[in-house]
Specification:
By secondary structure, this protein is an alpha+beta fold. The chain has 15 helices and nine strands. Helix 3 packs across helix 13 (347-364) and helix 3 (51-63) crosses helix 14. The protein is elongated.
Length: 392
């Protein structure tokens, strides 16, 4: 059983050109063992399939492009006897309704904790040269729109590593609530030492900042109208007198974008705890089709001092948070999450967790085009099975 990520990925690269990172992973639990240890909500009597086997089936099918429970059941039904044998399934395939009932009863927190901890260990083991940018962890929410019932859809708050897009923690927002009360429970189990939390304006809350600093981390938080006095303070800083400290240019998604960043060391008295620096970002976007240009100014605060992060590193961390939107885009476009009509119990959340796991594995394997990755695993299921044997 291989304990090295590179041993598995080298076999993936035999017939596809992928960047295979040369590194060894510490021998802990394989992914298959982690899935098998998730608490099983079913009664022992009458069980025909082990929980780990069914979760592994869902993962391999999603890696191969399955977007619904019916697609997962068809994937298994159309699989060869060797595929079913490697999954540990008997000759009779589980129906989509069997999978649906199981996922609807799973403990969502337990599944997310198990998968998140495994992905965190996998991502923490370095597979490349250390980055000069501090480790960024984005806190961001997403609504699973297809799960809407009685006017309410499942909304998930996740902690996502900037570089690997690995979701290492996730919590479901309770109905008639919002993301703010879920921030601390989401981050509480995580070791935040050496980590910079990035979040949008909703989480620019004093209690959130205190929690992050108490846990040994740092923050970069966007400031908007929900913190009017703080934003007024930031806007009044002498930005015209401060020289430009970072400038980046990007082209993509039908637009050109130029971002200019200035940083100002703040004096005591700023209306936010532990704030060391204020940040001004001017973002200029040009629509390449229409030629229309728009300019937007964004303010942020950070607990990082000038000696802990340069302006270029701050700019990279802020861009890293915005890039998490790409994860949501992949879940909606490649894996059709918003089009999914899975609505019962915890099934929408469980399927979102399986998608997160699949995307994390693909990114760790070096894939940049995840649509191409699903085609690859659909035609080469043995490669997907080897991911189940990875040890983090």
């Amino acid at each position: 059983m291989p304990s090295s990520l590179i041993d598995v990925l080298l076999r993936h690269c035999e017939d596809v050109d992928l960047p295979c990172p040369p590194a060894e992973l510490s021998e802990l639990h394989t992914l298959a063992e982690v899935l098998d240890r998730v608490p099983d909500p079913r009664r022992v009597r009458g069980r025909r399939y082990r929980l780990g086997v069914l979760l592994a089936l869902c993962l391999v099918a999603v890696l191969s492009g399955a977007t619904s429970l019916a697609c997962i059941a068809r994937f298994e039904a159309d699989s060869s006897p060797d595929v079913r044998r490697r999954l540990g399934l008997p000759k009779r395939a589980p129906a989509a309704t069997t999978l649906g009932r199981l996922l609807a009863r799973l403990d969502g927190d337990a599944l997310d904790d198990a998968v998140g901890a495994w992905l965190a260990r996998l991502s923490a083991d370095p597979v490349s040269e250390p980055s000069p940018v501090p480790t960024g962890l984005a806190v961001d929410g997403k609504t699973v729109r297809g799960s809407r019932t009685d006017g309410t859809a499942v909304h998930l708050l996740a902690a996502v590593l900037h570089d690997s897009q690995a979701v290492i923690a996730q919590r479901q927002i309770e109905a008639k609530s919002n993301e703010i009360p879920a921030f601390v429970p989401l981050l509480d189990p995580l070791d935040l030492r050496g980590v910079v939390i990035t979040a949008d304006a909703m989480h620019t809350q004093r209690d959130h900042a205190e929690h992050v600093l108490a846990a040994g981390g740092h923050y970069i938080l966007i400031v908007k109208g929900n913190q009017k006095k703080l934003r007024k303070q930031l806007k009044a800083l002498p930005w015209r007198e401060i020289p430009l400290q970072d400038r980046t240019r990007d082209t993509g998604h039908g637009r050109r974008e130029i971002r200019r960043l200035k940083v100002c060391t703040v004096r005591p008295g700023l209306l936010f705890p532990h704030a060391q620096q204020a940040i001004e970002i001017k973002r200029r976007r040009t629509n390449r089709r229409t030629g229309r240009t728009s300019t937007k100014t964004i303010y942020a605060v950070t607990s990082l001092s000038p000696s802990q992060a340069t302006p270029a590193q701050l700019a990279a961390l802020i861009r890293g948070h915005w890039s998490v939107e790409a994860l949501h885009h992949v879940r909606d476009v490649t894996f059709a999450e918003d089009a999914s009509r899975i609505r019962t119990g915890t099934a929408p959340r469980a399927m979102a967790t399986v998608r997160n796991l699949a995307i994390g594995l693909m990114r760790q394997a070096g894939w940049t085009n995840l649509a191409a990755a699903t085609d690859h695993y659909r035609s080469r299921p043995a490669h997907a099975f080897e991911l189940l044997r990875l040890a983090a």
